[in-house]
Write a structure and sequence with these properties.
Oligomer: single chain
Radius of gyration: 28 Å
Largest sheet: 2 strands, antiparallel
Distance between the termini: 61 Å
Strand order of the largest sheet: 1-2
Helix content: 55-70%
Length: 724
């Protein structure tokens, strides 16, 4: 795509925003659209010609200023770049200055009030970013490729608006004390004893929440990655029987609301749990509360995070070029030597991605520590109670969030140090007809010793969840069979058509709709960003990569509160809409797609991109025809993860839902708080079935990349002719 083509498309988008789409937000949806093109639904030109919003005339002038050159077939780089940047700056500056309370523009008088931006404003901003990108490309930046320039500027703009602005909004409270700027308060909050105390070393008191969080995240990352690797090796190289059942069991924890797993663990191992009671009755082992604290939270987190590691690592194992392993075997290396010297080093990018994601996910988890933490406090729960507790202290919460961000940055730096500057390319432009090396016998036995018991334990946990929906009250030992809970939530009557009478239907339909919209957006944007970061060299690449990880570094409760603070007022007002839920999920889950895509691209030789460029293919053609087909495992992982997390997340959206747009997890939390544990478990069972079907359907539809021959093909013997 050339700079002129991009500039013209951007100009058309900006003109559509000025002339057609409603400039301001639509509070009443279709009712406001019925009044188009007047009232709230009026385009900007209608408002200006009517004498209203006169301060927005400079935006029209800037859009029209770029039109003559583009219509004449020219793309002046400086003009386009300046026009695009000025439009974006002017729209947001006026939006923040003139809000619901108006503004005093001194010599021009008092103006306003002004509602939030609508679809017209969004189109103009998108067109302005296109003009900015076209201007950069016309000046030779980003290799003169307008497609890459637009990806960089567009993704940077989205990350700034939906990641940096909410984070900056809430973190600004860290240096505020009773509404006044107080830097000393930040120092006091960051060095507080609740964060750094080491009293657990010498006394029976607990340690600071930073040490607790760091210990929990490190253990969760190591254990989940090890278990995920065992499952991945068995699935890709272990020739396991019934692979469909094997994969279904490995991804079950991935598709379950985390607090439901915690409830199942309490039913099993609580003081009155099934296992605890059996041990007391059979072996006189005293009842204890060991499940409440570090062991219980760690167990619940590993159950949730090991499947993520499995999905990422299995794709990496299958993407390893078999010819390298076959060459080592041909030279006389034993199976274990081949694995140690060839396979294991090539898995480093995927292992590093799994460790980082599990570490950050453990930092951000709030549901499991809330249910099972007991006296074991971590940063996420302290932040939650600082915001939602009796003492609403946003400054203390913001300071603790800064500590969480520091831990994430440290993990990111350690990952980069471990990978170093080594290359991990296995997929080149040459054909690969090698046979994947089978696992060494001892390693296969070790993987099985880890995987099969863990699978059995997973089956028991999910058996509790499944049975709990069909009995009266599993938490109190009432195991009499009943359909009552499913009928309460999912009753359907047939009148002139199906009538969904159950109380859970509305939240289920909304959840599926939000997840179905956000999952492809998350996967698509994540893979595009991964390709930009791994394949393109441009100024600010490290900054862009850092911004993609910011949303994952902050607990979901803080993300939800920051979204309310940032998007509850003009110029961008989204609270109470479905759009804010979609946006929250997209940018909350984006790091998984990015890190998985980067790990997969590390195994694909850049010579494929260079060959495409040599044959005249642009960046867009290379991405579509060469790179994306080889990224199927990463696409599957991003789609599955983003869909499942949109279906199961609670902490990030519990503050964002509304009566009109309620979600399944928030409904389940409400049932738990009301004491309707069995109904909550029954709803969770329905969610598990829905998500399992969708995840397996995504994998079936997208498929998996296959490198080399998957099995040795015997060569038929050719009969020797007489006299030969």
């Amino acid at each position: 795509m050339g700079a002129l083509t991009l500039g013209r498309l951007a100009l058309l988008a900006a003109l559509a925003g000025l002339l057609l789409a409603p400039w301001h937000g639509l509070e009443n949806g279709a009712a406001d659209l019925a009044a188009w093109p007047s009232g709230v639904a009026a385009p900007l030109v209608t408002l200006l010609l009517g004498g209203d919003r006169w301060w927005l005339w400079p935006i029209v002038a800037l859009v029209l200023g770029a039109a003559p050159a583009l219509m004449a077939g020219r793309a002046p780089g400086r003009l386009l770049a300046w026009c695009g940047a000025a439009i974006v700056a002017l729209v947001f500056a006026q939006g923040y200055a003139i809000g619901l309370h108006g503004a005093d523009l001194s010599m021009f008088g008092t103006v306003g009030p002004q509602p939030a931006l609508g679809w017209g404003g969004a189109l103009v901003i998108g067109g302005a970013l296109g003009l900015l990108a076209a201007g950069f490309a016309a000046q030779g930046r980003f290799g003169g490729d307008a497609f890459i320039a637009f990806l960089v500027t567009g993704s940077a703009g989205l990350l700034l608006l939906f990641v940096f602005v909410p984070l900056a909004t809430i973190l600004a409270a860290a240096v505020m004390d009773e509404g006044r700027f107080a830097p000393a308060a930040l120092t006091q909050r960051l060095s507080a004893a609740e964060a750094w105390s080491l009293a657990c070393v010498s006394t029976h008191q607990g340690c600071g929440v930073v040490w607790n969080t760091l210990a929990l995240a490190t253990l969760a990352a190591l254990l989940s990655t090890a278990i995920g690797l065992a499952f991945a090796l068995l699935s890709a190289r272990g020739q396991v029987r019934a692979p469909a059942v094997f994969r279904a069991m490995t991804i079950l924890p991935l598709i379950t609301p985390p607090f439901v797993v915690s409830l199942a663990l309490i039913v099993l191992f609580g003081r009155a749990g099934l296992v605890t009671t059996a041990l007391w009755d059979w072996f006189d082992i005293p009842r204890s509360r060991w499940i409440y604290g570090l062991p219980g939270v760690l167990l619940a987190q590993v159950l949730a995070q090991a499947p993520i590691a499995f999905v990422l690592l299995e794709g990496a194992v299958r993407a390893i070029g078999p010819s390298l392993e076959e060459a080592a075997s041909t030279m006389g290396a034993r199976r274990f030597t081949v694995f140690r010297t060839v396979t294991w080093p090539l898995l480093r990018p995927a292992l590093a991605a799994c460790l980082l994601l599990a570490f950050v996910e453990s930092l951000a988890d709030f549901g499991n520590p809330l249910v099972l933490g007991g006296d074991f406090d971590v940063l996420s729960t302290r932040i939650f109670f600082a915001i939602a507790g009796a003492r609403n202290d946003p400054g203390r919460a913001a300071a603790l969030a800064l500590l969480l961000l520091a831990l994430t940055l440290g993990a990111f730096a350690l990952q980069a140090l471990w990978l170093g500057r080594r290359k991990y390319t296995t997929v080149t432009g040459k054909g690969d007809s090698g046979v994947p090396a089978p696992l060494p016998r001892g390693l296969k036995f070790a993987c099985g010793a880890v995987a099969w018991p863990w699978m059995a334990f997973t089956a028991v946990v999910y058996g509790i969840i499944l049975v709990g929906g069909f009995v009266r009250d599993i938490g109190r030992g009432d195991m009499s069979f009943t359909w009552r809970h499913f009928l309460t939530g999912f009753e359907v009557e047939w009148l002139d058509g199906p009538a969904f009478r159950g109380s859970a239907w509305d939240s289920l339909f909304t959840t599926i709709e939000v997840a179905a919209i956000s999952a492809p957006l998350t996967a698509g944007l994540g893979i595009l960003l991964a390709w930009l970061l791994a394949r393109q060299a441009f100024p600010g690449r490290r900054t862009l990569e850092f911004m993609t990880m910011l949303s994952f570094a902050i607990p979901g409760t803080v993300v939800g509160v920051s979204y309310i603070m940032a998007f509850n007022l003009p110029p961008v007002e989204l609270t109470g809409t479905m759009l804010i839920l979609v946006i929250c999920f997209v940018f909350r889950n984006l790091p998984v797609g990015v890190r998985g895509g980067i790990a997969a691209l590390a195994q694909i030789d850049k010579s494929l991109d260079e060959a495409s460029a040599t044959m005249g293919g642009g960046a867009l053609q290379t991405l579509r025809r060469v790179v994306l087909p080889l990224l199927r495992p990463a696409i599957v992982a991003a789609l599955a993860f983003s869909f499942v997390h949109a279906m199961t997340a609670v902490s990030a959206v519990i503050f964002l839902v509304s009566a009109r747009h309620n979600l399944a997890t928030v409904y389940i939390v409400g049932r738990v708080e009301a004491g309707e544990m069995a109904l909550a478990i029954a709803y969770s069972t329905v969610l598990i079935v829905v998500m399992l079907a969708v995840v397996l359907g995504i994998e079936k539809l997208v498929g998996r990349a296959q490198i080399g021959r998957r099995a040795a093909t015997p060569v038929p013997a050719t009969p020797m002719r007489a006299g030969a």
